[in-house]
Amino acid sequence: MRPAAAFGFAVLVAASAFLSSGLSAHLIGLLGALGLPVAAAVGLAALPGVGQSGARLAETLAGHRIRPLGLGVLASGVLLAGMIAGLAVAGPGAIALILVLAYGAGNGALTVVRGAQPMVLFQLASYAEISGRLVAPSFLAAAFAPPVYAAAIEIWGARAAMGLSLGLALATFAAAWALWARIGPTTDPGLPV
What we know:
Blueprint: H1 3-33, H2 38-45, H3 48-62, H4 68-87, H5 94-121, H6 127-156, H7 158-187
Helix pairs in contact: 1-2, 1-5, 1-6, 1-7, 3-5, 4-5, 4-7, 5-6, 6-7
């Protein structure tokens, strides 16, 4: 097993799991605290599934053109764009829509990445054991995320929770980029060099 690859993959899945779990649990309240009326917040909170399905459909249709490490960069970049948009939400509008759709699309594509990247990073004979070990921290991250987000919102406010989301998206993107830059250009040409 490559230690740097193992660490990068573990960071990618743990940070994205923390973000996904925390944001999913508090999305309606967070959107409301960012100035959306309750009906708009509820309506928008139903849309990440559209983004997830769209991303998975796009991956199915074009998956042969982008490899797992490149897909990790692309998916985490979309997630990062959504969190950047989230910092600018100040009521209903296009920016709030971008937040929820990019969050859903990035999250949906990252579920594909989580299953596919270990096949590129590690020997196939030990795929199940290694990926199971490296994904385990993401389960803890997902379990702790909702109470951490609740505390952040309660103590520091919705903008702080969006800042936390941005930090986690940055960690996800940095891990994906590091994996691609270190390993991908020669073995996984998913993005142009």
